[in-house]
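Researcher: Structure prediction, please.
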Amino acid sequence: MLNIIVELSKYVMILMITMYTFTCFSIFGFQDPDKKKGMLRNQNVLMFMIHIIAFLVMYLETNDIRLLAFYLMQVVLFGATILLYTLIYPKVSRLVINNMCMLLCIGMIMLTRLDYASAVKQFVIAAGAIAISLVVPVVIRKFKRFSEWRNFYAIVGIISLAAVIVVGRVSGGAMLGFTVAGINIQPSELVKIVFVFFVASSFKLSLEFRNIVVTTALAAFHVLILVVSKDLGAALIIFVVYLVMLYVATRQPLYILAGLGAGSAASVVAYHLFNHVRVRVLAWKDPFAAYDNGGYQVAQSLFAIGTGSWFGMGLFQGAPETIPVAVSDFIFSAIAEEMGLIFALCMILVCVSCYVMFLNIAMQLHTMFYKLVALGLGTCYIFQVFLNVGGVTKFIPSTGVTLPLVSYGGSSLLSTIIMFGIIQGLYILREDEEEDLERRKKERLRAERGAKAAPKKRTAAGTVQKRPQRSKTAGKAPGQEKTRQKQRVR
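Model: Predicted structure follows.
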């Protein structure tokens, strides 16, 4: 009986996430606000249905009463997130909230399946990050001087990355972060946000060639520090984000060509300088030939994806624990094995719909600084998704980055949720701008109508009133009039 429930559950969850994903894109074609609200509420229902089915199956498989309590805590968190955002910020983008909660939900399901202790830590970090993100939109909306802090952003970014080289610890061949009071901190995750603000404020200040050279030099210094600490995944993200923001700000293809040439040359140099880069490239070229020399991770990932096929093995029916670092870097493979490749592809499309929404917000913002911030954060998010999924599917060499909102990782989760909070703030700014433009338009039309009606006053019959002519004798004394008549007679 249990096997039947597990088998049916995976098809039901695939159907529900397919419906959810379809709604993510079809909602853009509707203009009726009531229709959109109904579709967004349906997304919430689908998410909570997937959530309860997955935890019910896991409870039946393990008989662990802790899962039921943990499930209820997650329901409270997701429900509170949706409710508080919509109550505090009526103009907020519900689609972005729904997608954030859906990705968190998928991550919590798979982390609970793989490692309950890691799932609990992830839950605590997510709750704290969401609490912080609730403050971010109002800060973005009220504080108007973020574009003036270019030097501050550059100093904070460089010092934070340099601190890793001094006191960082090596993990997986790279210095990624350090530990404070038992908490592992990875500064590069938060520096991505600071870097986007630095580039946007610099380009808002000036687009002259001299300023572009200075900005490029500081951006290259960020990348160089990450390369020295061997955090090549973060270095690649910052490099690509800078190129995209540079092109959008200047519209000069020559800068893109020069950047791609410099990036290609740097990749060749990194291949010859760093041994772990050569290992990852060899594992990418043929993971099975290099199975005992770095190809084990990618090979196990491909085995898991192939085993799961389109519909998956079902929760607790596969062997995702054989995948190295399945809770973080290779969580996509674990999802594909047990929940199916269709489910995993729908999850990627949910990420893409987030990026589409980010671009939509960026294109409709009128302030150059905020436009570049929205574009930079969106590019940072979707490129990290590409690096993670591309690495575990052998499309590109593995870079060791996490899948945002899904993989286990405190710094990554915190930075991504703050990123979503900033996007919400920019979305509210866009709504404010639209309301302000509409108000000015109405005032201008009202003023034009008043100007047209002012020169002429018409009677009820539609005829123009004539000014009565003044009598020649009006306003003169009777004596004066008689004297003039006598003078005329004489």
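Model: Residues 459-467, 470-479, 481-490 have pLDDT under 50 and may be disordered.
Researcher: Thanks, that helps.
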